[in-house]
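Q: Protein A?
A:
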Amino acid sequence: MARVDPFMVEVIRNGLSSIAEEMSLVVMRAARSPVLREAGDLSSSLSDADGFQIAQGQDIPMHMGVMSFTIREFLKLVPKARLQPGDVWMLNLPAIGGNHLPDVKVIRPIFIDGEIRAFAISLAHWGDTGGGAPGSYFADAYDCWQEGLRIPPLRIVAEGVLDEEKLGFVLANVRAPETCRGDLFAQISATRAAEGRLTEMFRKWGAGTLKEAFAALHDGAERQMRAAIAALPNGVYEGADAMDDDGHGGPGAVIRVRLTVKDDSLVFDYTASDDHVPGPINTTKYITAASAYYVAKAVCGPEIQASGGCYRPIEVITRPGSICEAGADKPVVGGNHETCQRIADAAFRALEACVPERLTAGGPTTSGLAIFGATREDGQWVTLYETHGGGEGARIDRDGVDVVRAHMANVMNTSAEVVETEYPVDVPFQRLRPASGGRGRHSGGLGMERAYRMRVDDVSLTTMFDRRDVPPYGLQGGEPGALFAMTLTKAGAAEETPLPGKSNLRIHKGDVVTVRSCGGGGYGAPE
């Protein structure tokens, strides 16, 4: 068969990307929980028949990097021979190309004329998956079983029919079953939309053309990435960054990377990073790879199609038993968005000696997470999952942007109006945090201040954030940004009490939690 026309490859590439984008829109429009509907804590991906990514939505880098492994790991446990048209599978196990339990993945094999031609994957953060604390962030966890319901590959839809018995088992182990049911249905609908669009493409252009186009996408992305890496100076570059603590109040773990640029290839070696820690900030080798892939793509080729071929020139080495590849029994819920950011930051620090002109100073590389769990007046259990952006780090040619999410995250906050309508929580104020950006030739962006006042008693509060002790770094002589801070003011009191970065506690009516997110680091010595 003749090679597919390059113009057709480009048409198909854009078509695939639009399908992934549509999947994300379906979830946001159909989901029940505000963390999906408002904050957009979700991602969508398509892979070829062998599980190599061919397209993704403009979603969350840590999700997308992980999902580049998910189907391949899934197929090791569930061979293609077991899959049937109309199947939908779900899973959340970190060991299967995953990250943490709240990120539930829904997988649909796409059959054309009886043969699997592609897979559609929808990842969505569920507001609760059980475990020791509402929202499934248990700060005192010392093993993975305390973090919630662990779902191995589970066929939830067979021949187009929902398996209510299996779904009932899952929903019996979460705190907001109807919300989770609605979110799962939104994910299933997203993969069904992808199936319809992909079927149209196969019918229009033929299976042979699409298969050739998928291969051409991989090969083209590989060529582009190799050319981009070849433009970097050869050398070995080392960088490090540190977590605030070990998740249980002990010393902070250090992430260390040795980055080797050799001709048209990149090697990220994280084996010198500290051992896994007692608390829930360990992470998987898939998250480590996702962070390295993000760094390579951001620095070398932001416009290169994110595909299996794009990552062929990149090798990521981790050490089993380290914080970057923790044992399968270790808690990982916070590592998904805290440690992954430090893994990326360590690589950016290494590249300061290589291509400083392409880098951004340290920024809001923490989720700044506060989870409020409460019972509303109507008796329904609700969980408010709130992430908080901060000041972007400055660059060689400009100041940092105020109040954004940077690098591995791409989640919005929930508007005050939605918070006050759907939860027994008021938002007294939200504003920029003055003087929080680090000084430099260009200054870091400002963080934010936002307060939450409880309208009911006995509210569960979970904190999970970093950059409380180790500030966002400056580059090329720039000063660091302000530290992240969260405080509690008890009802009727005037004094604020600082809150730890990883904790579970109970608060009550009239109590106020105030979040002050970090500012970005400066770039260049202040003049």
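Q: Protein B?
A:
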Amino acid sequence: MKPSSPSRKTSVQRRLMCAALFAPVVQAAPALSSTTPPNPSLAYLTTLSDALGLELTPQVRRKLAVALPAVRQREIMQSVHERLHAVVGDAWQTARETVPACVEDDLAANRLEVIGGLGFSHTELALMLATGGDAA
């Protein structure tokens, strides 16, 4: 018998990692940008990350963007956009409960990318890359 499930251990580590990377925005809900990104996946994920109050340091965001080729970023963002839009839609208030379930689903389906020795689910990457709204 295994002492603990690797997925469960990874999930706990992932939540701690996300807590370190994402700092809740202290101000009121951010205003949406007057310029809409041309990519619908990016536009949706940017709005979702804003609704969640996610903030990522520019240095970490740049490292993530550089580590993944632009084509791979677009593939991940499109896939995550389709999944989250189907579940969350425009009910932004449900995202806090939905996103962790999507991360768990990514782990179960092995939708992961290793960047700098750390494994990130596609959901995490898409939201991180969309934070700030200027992803590839």
